[in-house]
Amino acid sequence: MLLTLTPKTLSSSSSFSFPLPKSQNPKPPNPSRFNPISVKSQLQTERGLEFDPGETFFRHESATGRDLAVLSATLHKRSTKTLRVLDAMCGCGIRSLRYLVESNADFVVANDANDSNRRVITENLSRFIERGEGEERRWVVTHVLANKAMIERYMVGEFLDLIDVDSFGSDSAFLRDAFNAVRLGGLLYLTSTDGYSSGGHRPYNSLAAYGAFIRPMPFGNEIGLRMLIGGAVREAALLGYHVTPLFSYYSYHGPVFRVMLRVHRGKLHEDRNYGFVTFCHLCGHSDIIRWDELGLIGCHCSDTKASSSLVVSGPMWLGPLHDGSYVNEMLDLAKEWGWVSEGVGMDLEKLLSIMIEESDPRLPPGYFKMDEMASRAKMNSPSLKKMMSALVKEGYAVSRSHIISNGLKTDCPMSQFIKIAKDELQK
Ligand SMILES: C[S@@+](CC[C@H](N)C(=O)[O-])C[C@H]1O[C@@H](n2cnc3c(N)ncnc32)[C@H](O)[C@@H]1O
Ligand SMILES: [Zn+2]
């Protein structure tokens, strides 16, 4: 069959119509690779929607990651009037269901390589939304590898507004296909669960997956988000696009690193937000290094350049973790839907508010942990609140961190941070 490749920019928003070929993929040789945790079949409820996780991989703890995605998808639908989604690793289909019902998606491809999930996915979606036929078709269930699902959309010019890849480990092999299949101005929701790489314990793994050599640093969980965004920045540039992170979310269950990226046309001539992060084990100072400063690496606490106390990680994303005005819109929507003030754990309102603080462009990568600062300076630490107002009084940018409750993000150097903390304690 002759396929005509439609340029992305000419993509129509008509509903999905290309018949999917029957999967040529053999059954996964090792089913446990696709189902590392089995959950007994039992009806569950998320945001009022009842569904059956069956024997699929399902984590209740990922609900916040799904809430954030649904808020983003809904903002996209409201502003562009179109929402066509590929849920590339859908498990039991809970995300597909939520995109359809809560975000009012026009069309969702619910794909999971494991075809024994089919019955559960189909029943979960049918319970709320009729599948529909032809132009009216709202969803389809497929069982191909995620890459293939994306390539198929690209080949027929059926570009997607949102591609959600809820993968295990640091699987970045789908990035290129995702960029090819997403519409310009569309969204990519990426996941990594590789805490070893972000912690700097597998630098050659992170190098292979994201092109970033990661060393241990005290703020490894933020590095994990920056490494993931950085990998996407590099892949986007290769294809002539650039990306901006709309929000980045770390969750300790797993751990899981998630980023929602917007894909834009044109690669940036010079990306000031893609470079290296240093950390000095001697004095605790952290800094950013651009490509043209690589030969100047050193810490001001040491006489010699490139002192042995200094570790360097990167390249990775150096810019803000979130787009503050976008997260504000997410917060407004969460309020509109009554998803705030729920009073359980880190509720959504608190999370989004901290993300808004974190998106201050003056804040460099990383955070100071108050207990680490205290042990370095051999003193107690003042409360976060007192420290924050003291830093602001001194003219520094400061915010809480959504990653760690006793951490502060600031552009204040460690030596000055300790001095301000000491002054606070003496008050
Ligand atoms: C983390 S689970 C998905 C959970 C689901 N998104 C949710 O929110 O509950 C990952 C799923 O990806 C599927 N999977 C693993 N590798 C895949 C691949 N290369 N292509 C498509 N699906 C894959 C597994 O069968 C598993 O159901
Ligand atoms: Zn130093």
UniProtKB/TrEMBL annotation:
InterPro entries: SAM-dependent_MTases_sf, Trm1, tRNA_met_Trm1_C. Keywords: Methyltransferase, RNA-binding, S-adenosyl-L-methionine, Transferase, tRNA processing, tRNA-binding. It is an enzyme of class 2 (transferase). GO terms for biological process: methylation; tRNA processing. Its EC number is 2.1.1.216. The keyword RNA-binding applies. Pfam families: TRM (PF02005). Residues 1-37 are annotated as: Disordered. Residues 1-25 have a biased composition (Low complexity). GO terms for molecular function: tRNA (guanine(26)-N2)-dimethyltransferase activity; tRNA binding. It catalyses: guanosine(26) in tRNA + 2 S-adenosyl-L-methionine = N(2)-dimethylguanosine(26) in tRNA + 2 S-adenosyl-L-homocysteine + 2 H(+). Belongs to the class I-like SAM-binding methyltransferase superfamily. Trm1 family. This is tRNA (guanine(26)-N(2))-dimethyltransferase. It comes from Eruca vesicaria subsp. sativa. The lineage of its organism: Eukaryota, Viridiplantae, Streptophyta, Embryophyta, Tracheophyta.
